[in-house]
Design brief:
Length: 140
């Protein structure tokens, strides 16, 4: 006896209800194009923050032009539309995390989808002002 899960049975039912005489014709489909901000390199899974009037993007690991691992890539923009990948003086990619924490398996130091936060230290309030705990973070 063969048994099916309820989800599989429902999917089979839906497929049986859609009988077509031929391929489905799609009309009024426009070619997709890139629009908005673009970083023209391998820059996956970016985390974007804005601080001190500058946008910063941090992305998944890659190799630099010398074939060396870069744990977290960096790009920056003043206007959020024109982005520049941040390089070292020698032209290789700058690494936002050049020395990973001790618990990282350094035989495979894959750093994916970094989440970057800016922590802001707020000065102590005056004795007259109310106290509000203030560690601010931003993650986009």
């Amino acid at each position: 006896m063969i048994t099916f899960s309820p989800l599989l049975a429902f999917a089979a039912y839906l497929l049986s209800q859609h009988v077509s005489a031929g391929p489905v014709q799609l009309t009024n489909i426009e070619k997709r194009s890139e629009s908005g901000p673009v970083i023209l390199s391998n820059f996956p899974d970016p985390c974007i923050i804005n601080t001190r009037g500058m946008w910063y993007a941090f992305a998944t690991n890659t190799l630099n032009s010398a074939g060396v691992d870069v744990n977290v890539q960096i790009a920056q923009s003043k206007d959020f539309n024109t982005w520049t990948v941040v390089n070292n003086a020698d032209g290789t990619l700058r690494d936002a995390l050049p020395l990973p924490p001790h618990w990282v398996n350094m035989s495979m130091p894959n750093t994916w989808a970094p989440d970057v936060n800016e922590l802001v230290r707020v000065p102590q309030p005056s004795p007259v002002a109310p106290f509000f705990p203030s560690i601010l973070s931003a993650s986009y």
